[in-house]
Amino acid sequence: MAGSFTYTVRDRTGREITGSLEADNPDVLAGKLRQMGYFVVSIEEVKTSVAKKEFHIFGVKVKTEDITVFTRQFATMINAGLPLIKCLSILAQQTESGVLADIITDCQREVEAGRSLSEALGKHPEAFSNLYVAMVRAGELGGMLDDVLLRVANQLEREQEIRRKVKSAMTYPIGVMTLTLILMAAMIIFVVPKFAAMFKSLGGNLPTFTQILVNISHFIGGWGGLILAAVIIGAIVAFRRFKATAKGRMVVDKIKLKLPVAGVLFHKYAMARFARTLGTLLSSGVPILGALEITGETTGNMVVTKALDEVRAGVKEGETIARPLGEAAVFPPMVTQMIAIGEETGALDVMLNKVSDFYDSEVNAAVDSLTSLIEPLLMAFLGVGVGLIVVALYLPIFRVITMIK
Length: 405
What we know:
Blueprint: E1 3-10, E2 16-23, H1 26-35, E3 39-45, H2 50-57, H3 64-79, H4 84-94, H5 98-112, H6 117-122, H7 130-142, H8 145-202, H9 208-221, H10 223-244, H11 246-258, H12 262-283, H13 288-298, H14 302-316, H15 322-327, H16 333-345, H17 348-404
Antiparallel strand pairs: 1-2, 1-3
């Protein structure tokens, strides 16, 4: 059975070349390399670990951080004048991700077989998006692959920074909410039944508020809790399946944009991503129709995607981008006006980058504002929830004290 081997050879000028090929054994590969006019320095078999194969079986995606580091290092090597295959070989060896190492090695084989880099990257959508592949293709055609790769790396880093800020801002509220729910559930399931048994031994009727809490405790502590858990799990599964459909994504994305406070954040994030992606594609030399199509696929919001489909249809008929864009309610007037100015002055990519910078700062401000608003609300929820349970448990005690007196 054929295996994969890495090799190091020297050409007639003495320049060292490293690559990888598949062959039945090292001797067969050495013969092929000699026929190609190379002097063989070394040949080593590549041992693919079971863990890496399992990653590909389950279709695990590569982390954005790993792709960003790979892209920036790739751009630096290309700018330094290293051959493409040499760059891929070095990057495959030094990346910390086993999955990405396998993907880079496969791309190296494809390039050695005569395919373009963009074609090789396009075979791995789990690592390289349509945006990434299109920009690399434009860089290959324009002879500026290193510049394009740097733009891709900057784009990935900015998106990663915004996602990290949003996640860090939501970590505290989610933690407080989870702690509150766990605390309330523990009190209802474990504490309330003990108080209920004590109240029952004293005799008399419980206050209405306390009786309601005892009934809830009995319901959750028995079969009712299992039924409630099954209903919640079923609702989550049904929601995820509904969201996986095109209609479901459209409904969810519309709701996200109309939420009282968070909707502003989702809208500004979508605008920032739209402007940044379209501006980066246009500055990299991607044609306008292709850039609009790829931008629509990567906005992360179906409302914006649908609007961009209509814009693309208008551009096909000879219209400007700004006119159909202004008819879509999801795009603010400032965005359409900046784009119109960019089209008139021939600096559309520059204007789009300014729009993305503006909305990036708006997203940061919205995240800070949302965090400062959520924190007191969560603390109030924690205090009210636990306080109501404590009051319900102490009401019968006050009644017993009155009876004793």
